[in-house]
């Protein structure tokens, strides 16, 4: 119990440290909020007219749940960059030399980025409401959809933390971006996998982003929904956390002094 207490207490201290950095340097946060809005406007108004929604319906209502999912996926980049920056500047080694819980640094990073994701999701919801998106499910279903989105972000947090600790080089973020972007687009975020070649559609269908997008469309009652994906959307993030959570803590403990 004492170990758990200090893990939570030290983790909250690290979370406040990251929040203080954002308050003093808000530009990266603002850019992170504006970029997905630009994608919504571009796909919703410039390209959406040429995209057919499976089963019919308004394309922007089909798009917004996918965009919610996409912003959760893009969070890997910000987490990775923050972790690699601290590691390259020696900040992480400084923390490791202090009398604090060994997992507090990664727990604090996770807490700060999750709070940031809540803010991003709130802004995206406001953008969606402005362009005509509406949740047509009940209150419980809507809250469940938002819960799945944050669960996915929580899982990607641990992936970003692990990659940041292993790579430990801010210059490698570009390399990771070249992988994240294709994986993000290879999903049902913008179009249905049914419109893709068979083999490519199968890969896109079983993308964790596609599972969450399909589940949230079902819970929101938006066009293009496919039943049966809610359970899969919950299992995928739990598997990612089960794998990359312990790996992240282990990688942090093994960092060279």
From TrEMBL:
InterPro entries reported in the protein's UniProt record: ABC2_TM (IPR013525), ABC2_TM_bact-type (IPR047817), ABC_2_transport (IPR000412), Nod_factor_ABC_transporter (IPR051784)
A Pfam family: ABC2_membrane
CC per GO annotation: ATP-binding cassette (ABC) transporter complex
Keyword Transmembrane: yes
GO biological process: response to antibiotic
GO molecular function terms noted in the UniProt entry: ABC-type transporter activity
Keywords annotated in UniProt: Antibiotic resistance, Cell membrane, Membrane, Transmembrane, Transmembrane helix, Transport
The keyword Transmembrane helix belongs to this UniProt entry's keyword annotation: yes
Domain ABC transmembrane type-2: 27-255
Origin: domain of life: Bacteria
Transmembrane segments: 26-47, 62-83, 104-131, 143-165, 172-191, 226-249
Membrane-topology descriptor: Multi-pass membrane protein
Protein location: Cell membrane; Membrane
Similarity annotation: Belongs to the ABC-2 integral membrane protein family.
Protein name: Transport permease protein
